[in-house]
Write a structure and sequence with these properties.
Structural class of chain A: alpha+beta
CATH class of the largest domain in chain A: Alpha Beta
Oligomer: homodimer
CATH topology of the largest domain in chain A: Aminopeptidase
Strand content of chain A: 15-25%
Distance between the termini of chain A: 19 Å
CATH architecture of the largest domain in chain A: 3-Layer(aba) Sandwich
Largest sheet of chain A: 6 strands, mixed
Number of strands of chain A: 18
């Protein structure tokens, strides 16, 4: 392994320029205009993997293609499936980017580009690790499969059917998912829990057309006002979610988890300063880390209605709408929560408006077994590369595939993400720290080595 | 007068095509791109008036120009000042127009175009009345002044200073304002009261940038949610406005007014059907007409924040905003109400957000003396043209200049608007009924005749 690590270090600039190549492809899965770019990104990965002798293919789906590859020459050794996604989030508001989102720019020891941390940089870590081990040793210590999808940012609508239809093809002993972050730069961590997601769009329709707020104001329900009232009623004064049944299936935190979370270095003043807020706001009775990792939320992701241009327009809008999503914890179910939310919104709507709903993608919450041998192999790998054993934490985000892999393939998910909490996923100026990138490749190589020794 | 009326009827098609000419000019005062169109509309009016022998001029202001004209040859007769505005509202949402807003289209006995009723059609009524009287008799029964502004839809910021600086030039015995509607097609009416306006934009800022709703949701105040809570708290369950002091100066309806309103034909079922709503919503304890004409309101004219595109984005928005306006009744003051609203919003804002305010134009409420001789002359004129004495009503909208004229020039305002309640002012498919247009010209001619006889 020393020679492998040496080779990884000597190849740093190649890894770096290869990363830039993929980051330059604007593979925004939600934007129909980027369809061709999605194909470019998929082909780039295919070509890369083929060059390494990984038997690879692009598998069409009703949406964006899956790139699949396998290298199965380590007879008797475990099989590891690496999951990643090559699609990225939209970039708006574009004007807030300091450098263009698809022109990777290096500063402050990081590469700034959409998708750098989420998830192109993180998936390439595993590809480059395999590349250098193959170059150095001519083989791999495990049987390795790559499953790289192009629809993670739109809810992976075609991934679950694909997995269900390919249980044998994807059979493995563990899945590695690198789509998450360290607790902090100095505190390497591994996730054993993630929140799920339910996402509902509600449109509130009032009068048949926009009305003059003078001629009609005061006698007609205003959809924007009605929507505000409905949203306001979805939390109580303790910032608990005021939807009957919402908490029924919430698994309460165990005492040892609360203790573990409380022992982590968390600096509220620094956290607030980072976010640019003077005060935090969350469910009463829980610490910030508990709120983020182990409590469900309901957030307005977007709201609109009436006139939002410059100046003033005295309109009583015909409709208003909001995108509302809930982060879920075990054992909440996304469909059940969406049902409860819709039901509550219908109850809250005043008589003068009608509601329409659009359901967006959801995902199950995930909770893993931290004592699993492959999870422990991952921990050792991180220790080797970063010099510190990772702490076991939970995460606030959603990686719905984790739960899918666990339930469909019946194998553990090893969450080896090496992003940093300030990577600005989904925001302008997304970045990926270059130390994390290069050390991440070493960690991925160590993981293949450690996993290969699991009996 | 019979010959004048005959001539007006014979010139109907000319009036019609002249109206179309002016309607084709997209004179949107709030849109900087339409600056040249504003000048085109002003010049069109100037040329028209000059052709009639009205001494006219375009008077620049810091914003859009005022078109002023006078015909002062009726020695000893009263002086009437006609007020109108040649600017129009924006047209969005454009896709809801059945025909383009600046291509006048005739159907169902009406002309459809932005500005047809508000206010180009209505101001031309007076110009065409003068035109035909001049053509028939060579003179006018009154001294006539025209004051046509280009900034009514942006709050007339330069009109009041202009009036203040030109008290002598604008001296008159009565002002005619034709920017309002009949109670219904079959119930001609004249307004003696209008609501005022206060208009505030609030921006709620939370985290320094859009955050990932999974990574941060549950611990940070969400500006869109905070805004919804603040808006919801601005009304109580009786739909009274929950701002301390808001109602302090509200002049209560007199018993005779409540009786008069109650005697008007008002069909709630038809009203709801017209609006396309199943239920109305307004301040408890007041009828719909009372709510619309004599009670103050607080409406959300626009709301925005976060992601409103197609699909789903799991963002916790950095900011959200709303445009909020209040319709005011005597003796509320726009600045005082804006102050109270801002104060209340600051009180309601949770600790994790900061507020920023933009004040848009406001206007005082207006209440006139229905027994004035010129108001009565207007009533007789409407009776002559439409065959029915108008009922005296109040209006829900704001024509802030009415109060300005009354207080600065010390003369009554005669509200002779002949629009119809379904003209869709400020909405897609604005229209002006052609019978109202042509009969309106007759009414305007009769008014000049009747006003000329006032001693």
């Amino acid at each position: 392994m020393d020679k492998v690590i040496e080779r990884i270090r000597q190849s740093a600039s190649t890894h770096r320029s290869d990363l830039d190549e993929l980051l330059r492809v604007p593979s925004i899965s939600s934007n129909p205009e980027n369809k061709a770019d999605m194909e470019t990104a998929a082909k780039w990965l295919l070509t890369r993997m083929q060059k390494l002798g990984i038997r690879s293919e692009i598998i069409p789906t009703p949406g964006h293609s899956i790139v699949y590859g396998e290298h199965l020459e380590a007879e008797g050794a475990p099989t590891i499936l690496v999951y990643g996604h090559y699609d990225v989030q939209p970039v708006d508001p574009l004007e807030l980017w300091d450098t263009p989102p698809f022109e990777p720019s290096e500063r402050e020891g990081a590469v700034f580009a959409r998708g750098s941390s989420d998830d192109k940089g993180q998936l390439l870590i595993h590809l480059f690790a395999a590349q250098e081990i193959l170059a150095e040793t001519g083989g791999l210590p495990v049987n390795l499969k790559f499953l790289l999808e192009g629809e993670e940012e739109v809810g992976s609508p075609n991934l679950k059917p694909f997995i269900e239809a390919n249980i044998d093809k994807l059979a493995c002993d563990a899945v590695v998912v690198s789509d998450t972050s360290f607790f902090s730069r100095d505190v390497p961590s591994m996730l054993y829990g993630l929140r799920g997601l339910s996402y509902v769009e509600v449109i509130v329709r009032g009068p048949a057309l926009d009305l003059h707020s003078g001629e009609f104001g005061g006698a007609v329900a205003n959809p924007a006002d009605a929507l505000a009232r409905m949203i306001a009623a979805l939390h109580d004064d303790d910032r608990r979610i005021a939807i009957p049944g919402f908490y029924d299936k919430v698994r309460e935190l165990e005492g040892r988890e609360r203790e573990a979370f409380a022992s982590l270095p968390y600096d509220e003043a620094a956290y607030k300063k980072d976010l640019g807020v003077e005060a935090l706001e969350g469910e009463a009775g829980f610490t910030t880390l508990e709120q983020l990792w182990a409590r469900p939320t309901l957030e307005v992701n977007g709201i609109w209605g009436g006139f939002s241009g410059e100046g003033a327009k005295t309109v009583l809008p015909a409709e208003a709408g909001a995108k509302i999503s809930c982060r879920l914890v075990p054992d909440q179910n996304p469909d059940e929560i969406s049902d409860l939310l819709e039901k509550r919104l219908r109850e809250l709507a005043p008589a003068g408006v009608r509601l329409e709903f659009i359901r967006h993608h959801g995902g199950n919450p995930f909770l893993a077994e931290p004592d699993n041998v492959f999870v422990k192999a991952g921990a050792r790998a991180i220790n080797k590369a970063f010099g510190k054993m990772p702490v076991l934490v939970r995460g606030g985000g959603s990686v719905p595939v984790t739960e899918t892999f666990q339930s469909l393939l019946g194998v553990p998910c090893v969450m080896m993400g090496v992003g940093l909490p300030d990577d600005r996923l989904h925001s302008p100026n997304e970045k990926f720290d270059l130390k994390q990138f290069h050390k991440g490749i070493e960690a991925a190589a160590w993981f293949l080595h450690e996993a290969g020794e699991v009996k």
